[in-house]
Amino acid sequence: MAQVILEQVSKTFPGGVQAVHPVDLQVAHGEFVVLVGPSGCGKSTTLRMIAGLEEATSGTITIGDRVVNDVEPRDRNIAMVFQSYALYPHMSVRDNLAFGLKMRKMARDEIVTRVGRAAEILGIDELLDRKPRALSGGQRQRVALGRALVRDPDVFLFDEPLSNLDAKMRVQMRTEIARIHHRLGATMIYVTHDQTEAMTLGQRIVVMKDGVVQQVAPPLELYEHPVNRFVAGFIGSPAMNFLPGKLVRRDGLVFILDHDERSLALPAGFTPPDEALDRHLILGIRPEHVKVAGDDDRPGFTAAVQVVEALGNETLLYFTVGGESFIVRTAGAVTPAIDQELPLALHPDGIHLFRADGDGRTLG
Q: Beta partners for 33?
């Protein structure tokens, strides 16, 4: 396996449209890195530049010890798995797996060995004589993965490979891909718009927006220490709650909402940076860091329940606070009535403060 290094790699399309601003990224040997972001953020374009399917406008792309900017895709020793399975319908699974190796004129015994190993890893041994039309979507995706596995490449590249699958099958295939990575110790770069896929698969995650890398970090660091409001809102489901207002000292710390006459009393354990006081900003807090206040809690504010989503293991409560949607994640046994006023308390370690203007960076 090989490391992948991007140094100031960018892509500008005809007409001056800059799809990817200069990116610096180093993917270590055997690392699983996920590029994530909304549609049009530049993640797939970045992957295609690594694969050689798009030419980089500037910068250097290195795979292993070789600069590959001018190397043809077929000579970069990478394997790519796409959203489309792209299987040959007239060929059996066995022949689909072997086709690329035959085109490279590999010895027959080696082809048989590689196909057998890939089929065993993916659990498709019994499907080798079937045609693609006789396979389910998940089985077809396994065959597409197998076609990449038999190549024994330096780097695996995945471009939203699970988008065509239903929710249950996506979970199963995520587990399959993670298991393959652990077994092979392969270098993998994976593109998705699904933050759940990113969080469950990636050892590090690259969050992109408008062609610009926002943050590169392990999943939990992204979740707990986002560098700006975009990352905080994109990572996590349900998304982080955001409230615009002003932080002041008034018998303790108080957050005055911009679009509401109410003030939120912040918990005693919260210590904001000095730059946050007496200025307009955005307070962020995740749904699990808000709770229905008990007798021993100091309520920060009260709000009326608008929607209750009972999911079994947990219940999501929806409110409107300061004109903004506000979600609270509680235990599954908590099922208040609609329009019931509830006292809510914020966990001091879960409060984030962001600039209200510019890049929305985190304060402190």
A: 189, 204
From first CA to last CA, the distance across the chain in angstroms is: 39
Query: Which residues have C-beta within 8 Å of that of residue 149, sequence separation ≥ 6?
Result: 79, 114, 117, 118, 121, 122, 180, 184
- 264 burial type by CB count under 10 A (0-12 exposed, 13-18 middle, 19+ buried): buried
**Residue 15: half-sphere exposure toward Cβ, Cα within 13 Å:** 2
How would you write the pLDDT of the chain (364 residues) with one tens digit per residue? 689 999 999 999 999 999 999 999 999 999 999 999 999 999 999 999 999 999 999 999 999 999 999 999 989 999 999 887 788 899 999 999 999 889 888 999 999 999 998 898 888 989 999 999 999 888 888 898 899 888 889 999 999 988 888 888 888 889 989 988 998 899 999 999 999 999 999 999 999 999 999 999 999 999 999 999 999 999 999 999 999 999 999 888 999 998 877 789 999 889 999 899 989 999 999 999 999 988 777 778 899 999 999 999 999 999 999 889 999 999 888 889 999 999 999 999 999 999 998 889 999 7
244's enclosing H/E stretch is strand 241-249
User: What is the chain's alpha carbon radius of gyration, rounded to the nearest angstrom?
Assistant: 25
Tokens of 263: 């003030």
Strand pairing report for 301-304 and 58-63: unpaired
- What percent of the residues of the chain are helix, what percent strand, and what percent coil, each to the nearest 5? 30, 35, 35
What the block records as the tokens of 198 is 């990113």
